[in-house]
Amino acid sequence: MNAAEREQLFKRLYVEAFPGVARYIARRGGTFEAATDIFQDAVIVYYEQLTGKGVSNKGREEAYVFGIARHLWSRHLRQQQKEASLGDVAPYEAKEQSQKEQHNILHYISETGKRCLDLLHAFYYDKKNMKDIATEFGLSGERSATVQKYKCLEKVRDMVKEKALVYEDFAG
Amino acid sequence: MRTSLVEIEQIEEHLLNGAPMPTAPQDVDGMYWQARTYQLVNAYGRHQLKSELQTVHNQLLGEGKWSRLKRRILRYFR
Lengths: 172, 78
Known about the structure:
The structure holds 2 protein chains of 2 kinds. By secondary structure, chain A is an all-alpha fold. Chain A has helices at about 5-15, 20-25, 30-55, 60-85, 90-110, 115-125, 130-135, 140-170.
């Protein structure tokens, strides 16, 4: 799916599915901001299923996304209850630190290895085929794109390792 | 392909397609960091999607826009 197709999908889902999700969450005490977050996360889950399994739910998209959103909202409430009942917040500090570390590493790689990150993103996340990747990244063909993919994987892996180890040294 | 890239391919076959685990000692370390790299690529993908979704959100429901869609949705939160 290219960027234009994704935009069409997202606009369609906003018009068809967001009102139902918003009403569901509003009736359960959630805010407009929470409904937006949950809806966007549900769309991301749906997109990953579309690209991963090639499943098309066009006729039932609205219901499918609503189902995912309902599940995410339940999980959100359970997480809130768990956090409220905990006296020791250390486990959640560790999780926040891990997310912060990932964010920092991602920021570093986006700055210094963006082309490689974009190529890996095209293959592993958007599930584009090698022919399309070769065209998009100006490579001579599928074989060249495959070799470049592994070179990028090696480069980004080494950057992840380097940054993660430095971060661990500072974090203690 | 050079040897290091062949090793990466073998690790990928194991991590993503269930092939037998490579057994050379350096592969264990490489496997860990390659798995983390896949996680990072996923995180990057989700970050990009969130950004695209927020753009659509702002187009349809942003500040200063009073579309029928926005009025309908905000009514639920009064």
